[in-house]
Specification:
alpha+beta, Conserved hypothetical protein from pyrococcus furiosus pfu- 392566-001, ParB domain, Conserved hypothetical protein from pyrococcus furiosus pfu- 392566-001, domain 2, 6-stranded antiparallel beta sheet, 8 helices, 18 strands, elongated
Length: about 280
């Protein structure tokens, strides 16, 4: 099933893939999996397709759904295939923010992450965005950059070292940096991942840390509920696909504008809401 590309909407195809063929690009947060498994079993459905690159089957979001369905021994998974390199699909980053940190923790991070102080936070941000430094720490009014050689995907090992040493982290957006600094948070600043890196991570199995990327995908399909029976091995691929196709064709749908609130989250992009 494809969206209407004639109106300028991003085209996507909702279908099934073998769950073993879908390639995550990020690690998961283990504690979130057990609750998600319970929720899926209770509802008896996969809610919303996992968005994947149509050429490589690398998953752009939905990592926890993939692992939860694997744990439930699903044979296939509902996906929405997109042309990932369509310029309308945007990649953003999550930044880590930590409050109530000690000077001892900051001193430890300076050693582990190879940090040196720079004149100001704007210089720290510029150094990371230009690729001169793999990561930076913003703290108070100070900025620190890493002098370690950690090119490309290797910089994510430094994020994992930060994660090991911090608790009660918040993932924040770039536009929230000033707000969190004013409220006493320490921020780990990382370079925005690009699409080539994300595909490379999925194909190589060298995964990003959890909550590294955030994708904006126009006309994202939501509230599409696929019964678990269609994901099991009870039906062959053709039978399951035909049922899914008929189910989607019979569903009413509605376009929600950008910044709509759905399922506890505000989305920057337009949503295709099924069963409004």
């Amino acid at each position: 099933m494809s969206s209407n590309s004639q109106t300028g909407q991003l085209s996507f195809t909702i279908t099934f893939l073998k769950i073993s063929d879908v390639k995550p690009h990020e690690e998961i947060i283990e504690k979130n999996i057990s609750e998600l498994i319970k929720s899926i079993k209770k509802d008896g459905v996969q809610i919303d397709p996992v968005i994947v690159d149509r050429n490589t089957n690398v998953a752009l979001d939905g990592m926890h759904r993939i692992y939860a369905l694997k744990a439930l021994e699903a044979k296939r998974i509902m996906v929405a295939k997109v042309d990932y390199f369509d310029e309308r699909i945007k990649v953003h980053r999550w930044l880590r923010a930590v409050k109530n940190y000690s000077s001892a923790l900051l001193d430890e991070l300076k050693v582990v992450l190879g940090l040196k102080k720079v004149p100001n936070q704007l210089e720290a941000i510029r150094s990371v965005d230009s690729g001169e430094s793999p990561i930076a720490i913003l703290e108070g009014s100070a900025g620190y950059v890493s002098i370690l050689n950690a090119p490309n995907l290797e910089r994510f090992n430094l994020i994992k070292e930060f994660d090991k040493r911090t608790t009660e982290r918040r993932e924040i957006m770039e536009k929230e940096i000033d707000q969190y600094l004013k409220n006493g948070y320490m921020i780990l600043y990382v370079k925005r991942p690009d699409k080539e890196e994300i595909i490379k991570a999925g194909l190589s199995g060298i995964l990003f840390p959890p909550k590294s990327t955030r994708h904006v995908i126009p006309y994202r399909p939501v509230n599409l509920r696929c019964p678990l029976d269609l994901l099991s091995g009870k039906l062959n691929d053709q039978e399951a696909s035909e049922i899914l196709s008929r189910m989607i064709e019979s569903m009413p749908k509605k376009i929600l504008p950008p910044n709509s609130f759905y399922a506890g989250r505000t989305y920057e992009e337009e949503l295709v809401l099924y069963n409004p």
